[in-house]
Design a protein that fits this description.
Elements: H1 20-25, E1 36-42, E2 50-51, E3 59-61, H2 63-75, E4 80-85, H3 105-116, E5 121-126, H4 149-166, E6 170-173, H5 180-190, E7 197-204, H6 211-217, H7 219-223, H8 241-253, E8 257-261, H9 267-276, E9 281-285, H10 287-298, H11 304-318, E10 322-325, H12 328-336
Parallel strand pairs: 1-3, 1-4, 1-10, 4-5, 5-6, 6-7, 7-8, 8-9, 9-10
Antiparallel strand pairs: 2-3
Helix pairs in contact: 2-3, 4-5, 8-9
The structure holds ligand PBG.
Length: about 325
């Protein structure tokens, strides 16, 4: 082919990709610090931040350090945090009774953050897994082979009322029991917490990507395995339509925000859910998504900064209004530069 070969083209999409300025003019998706919710782990006592080996850069914080971390997130423009407690093994039992203590670690953490930063959105998981010795999200049936749906929902309602009393803006039921959104809404309303919102883990899949999180809260350690089988309550990764059934139910039961989880491997579900609801849609970029990018970067196989941003952009482009991500702080810091 000769070098003078010229195509007489009307359309050359590359025209708009020629410079950074042109590219920025036609940008369709923009990440902002306000898009992020930072998941944070909290422990009792005064120890220094504890690293989590499968989540480089993520720590378990004492309440004092947690408040400091929230302050720096707030300064960077991150408006929200999702708090997760890690309990010592000796406080766990079969029924997760520690979840109902008036002075539970999570409640003290919520009060401390709300006192220091009253404007910051604080949310907490409503599920029993940090509290149960078996690591499941609820109370088991007598034969120990399944989670008892209705008894678990009753426990979740009590938990939600306690968390609302401590001042959370949103409770986030992450257990996938049937009917829990409606029951929690009623429990909150009947206790004068009509303004406490619900971020529903609506389409939460039975995913292997939760492994590192289970190290972080010790639910894997408690159960003696990372591969805890939650398939009787979390969604089957093979299914799309089933997510839409859950959306319909959670909306009807009063969810304020609809969540899809994990995010990256479920971008099609985020898009489906975006199209199925007018409620805000959240997506949770889970621990395993974070860990795989970190691990590949450590090996020198991926560029951490660029993959971090690309992974988050993809989730937003798929239709998420907000993203729970362990990359919240670094990304917000980078956006501020
Ligand atoms: C538990 C809960 C899990 C996550 C959030 N809440 C794990 C699980 O269902 O076992 C996962 C978060 C992550 O992997 O980052 N109710």
């Amino acid at each position: 082919m000769s070098s003078s070969f010229k195509l007489d083209l009307l359309h050359r999409p590359r025209r708009l990709r020629r410079s950074q300025a042109l590219r920025s003019l036609v940008e369709e998706t923009v990440l902002r610090p306000q898009d992020f919710i930072a998941p944070l782990f909290v422990i009792d006592g005064k120890s220094a931040p504890e690293p989590i080996s499968s989540m480089p850069g993520v720590f378990r914080f004492s309440i004092a350090d947690l408040v400091k971390e929230c302050r720096s997130l707030w300064k960077l423009g991150v408006p929200a945090v999702a708090l997760f407690p890690k309990l010592d093994k000796r406080y766990k039992d079969d029924e997760g009774t520690a979840a109902h203590q008036e002075d539970a670690l999570i409640l003290r953490a919520v009060r401390a953050v709300k006192k220091a930063l009253p404007e910051m959105v604080v949310m907490t998981d409503i599920a029993l897994d940090p509290y149960t010795s078996h690591g499941h999200d609820g109370i088991l049936t007598p034969d120990g082979r399944d989670v008892d749906n209705d008894r678990t929902v009753e426990a979740l309602c009590r938990m939600a009322v306690l968390h609302a009393g401590a001042g959370v803006d949103l409770v986030a039921p992450s257990d996938m029991m049937d009917g829990r959104i409606g029951a929690i809404r009623q429990a909150l309303n009947s206790r004068d917490f009509a303004m406490t919102g619900i971020m529903a883990y609506t389409a939460k899949y039975a995913s292997a990507y939760y492994g590192p999180f289970r190290d972080a809260v010790g639910s894997a350690g408690a159960a003696g395995t990372h591969h805890l089988d939650k398939r009787t309550y979390q969604l089957n990764p093979t299914n799309r339509r089933e997510a839409l059934i859950e959306v319909e139910l959670d909306e009807a039961e009063g969810a304020d925000i609809i969540m899809v989880k994990p995010a990256g491997p479920y971008l099609d579900i985020i898009r489906d859910v975006r199209e199925a609801t007018s409620k805000p849609v959240a997506a949770y970029q889970v621990s395993g998504e974070y860990a795989q990018i970190q691990a590949a970067a450590k090996m020198g196989w991926l560029d951490l900064d660029r993959c971090r941003v690309e992974s988050l952009l993809s989730i937003k482009r798929a239709g998420a209004d907000m993203i729970l991500t362990y990359f919240a702080k670094e990304t917000a810091a980078e956006l501020a530069r």
